[in-house]
Amino acid sequence: MYSLSHGSVPSRRGRGDPRALLASLWPPFPPPRRAPPSPREDAAALDPDEPLVAVDRGPEAMPWHPARMDPPLAYRLCVLGAPRSGKSSLLARLTSHAFDGGYTPTRRSEQLFTTSGAARGAPQIFWELEDTAGVPAGRPAAALAALLRPLLWYERRREGGAEEARLDAMGLAAMAARGADPLASVLATARKRTGFVVVAAVDDAASFELAYALVDAIFDRLEYEPHHDAIACPAAVVLVGSKADRPPSQRHATAAALARGVEARYARRVSYVECSAATNENVAQVLHEALRRIKELPERKAIKEARRRGRGRAGLSFDTLVESATNYFRRPSDYNT
């Protein structure tokens, strides 16, 4: 006969306890299988601030496409640049048609509003322009961490926010039912950004280097590679060379050279416009170029597909996979150099 020894191994030591013997011979019950997390629980475990591409219609996916919105049209642009690059002067020209030669640094972001399009018979467009503080040189990525957090037109939040957007939509409908001003109704709702205006001074080479770094940071935020992605840029990006009234002796490069540099660097996915807030030269072209880029925005499904191809099935970008493979096949002697 077998008896139960220490460790649940049968041994020849008398009769033993039948219940212990049965317990040693019967296979143990498997642990209870945990149900897979629900979509709500799975979304709660992720970063709520990380946006997703919104493909379906819904409170977090409106408008469906900026170029096909129903009137009144409202677009939101974020204006970035180095200190003293002329951001506030440009916005003052666009909104109040005035120019102040003095310099007052922008301490915090401000929202300015203007309209365009009605004079030429086109649908009237309401522009919300975000005037931001100057980005310090050398740390564009750190300075943009908070500035680039708001959602873009094709994104939705992982969790939360949907109820607020639904209440905003209900409030908009209630205001329209009461006969409220459409402009006030549009401005009362939280709009998502449709693009960026990056400003640099033509007499300051360092401001252009910072502007290039800002555009690169924007593309990182968009997960967009201008030289590899087949679609247009998911957000309208316009690089503005301000202070175009400076004499040629004060410019660090000609207008043609700067335009060619922007075109080559970003594969024609970024527009370049030179203007002067002091003389009002070519200032309106900034919004015209932004509108042209907005009309070229790709569909949400195309953006999601391009992002999926860029990340690969494992959720990693192609550059990350290449770097990982390179590090894997490096010789041990390479790490000692």
Automatic annotation (TrEMBL):
GO cellular component: plasma membrane
Matching PROSITE patterns: RAB, RAS
UniProt GO MF annotations: GTP binding; GTPase activity
Pfam families in the record: Ras (PF00071)
Entry membrane topology: Lipid-anchor
Keyword annotations from UniProtKB, A to Z: Cell membrane, GTP-binding, Lipoprotein, Membrane, Methylation, Nucleotide-binding
Cellular compartment(s): Cell membrane
Residue ranges with Pro residues bias: 27-38
Sequence intervals crossing the membrane: none
Residue ranges, annotated region (Disordered): 1-45
InterPro entries: P-loop_NTPase, Small_GTPase, Small_GTPase_RasD
Matches recorded under PANTHER family: GTP-BINDING PROTEIN DI-RAS2 (PTHR46149:SF7), MIP08469P (PTHR46149)
Protein name: Cytoplasmic dynein 2 light intermediate chain 1
Organism: Prymnesium parvum (Toxic golden alga)
